[in-house]
Amino acid sequence: RDFPPTDIKGKQAQTCYNCGGTYPHQGRPCPAAGKTCHNCSKTGHFYRVCKSEQKPISRKPRMPQDQYKSKANKLNALNQNRQQQPLSAEPTVQGEPEVSDSDSNEDIFAVSRAKKVKQPPMTKLKINGVKVEFLIDTGASC
Q: Residues 69, 75, 76, CA angle at the centre, nearest 5°?
């Protein structure tokens, strides 16, 4: 059986009119404080609790198939370019974000890393007269 949410003192919690979550917020500010509603553009509440007439939520349209092919071609060109370059010990990022008049966040980057791995950092210490080799743990994997 489901029980209504309760606050810290065991009282039945209410729904916040600004964020739609449980109220009180148990010592924290409301998550909607200072945020802009995507429906009415006013601050202090979220879309889901907006009292203005609800506008339909606009979803970003899918990328057209021909645009997808163009991005795939760019990625293939970057991969071919990467294969022609000499290997380096440091990871590199190649490519530039595509400039477009759309609000798409679909930029193409190629990240490459040399296949040859450096020897891990080691040191030798003498413990009770015996030389022991230790791996230095830097916290980094490359």
A: 90
Look up residue 78 and give its DSSP letter: H
The larger pLDDT score, comparing residue 16 to residue 112, is at 16
CA distance 97 to 71: 11
What's the mean pLDDT in 55-61? 64
Distance CA(44)–CA(142), nearest Å, equals 45
| The model's pTM | 0.34
How far apart, in whole angstroms, are the C-alpha atoms of residue 84 and residue 81? 5
Sign of dihedral through CA atoms 80, 86, 90, 96? negative
Looking at residue 1, its pLDDT comes to 43
> What are the boundaries of each domain within the chain?
12-55
Facing residues of 130 across strands? 127
Cα separation of 12 and 77, whole Å? 61
- Contact present, 30 and 38 (Cβ < 8 Å): no
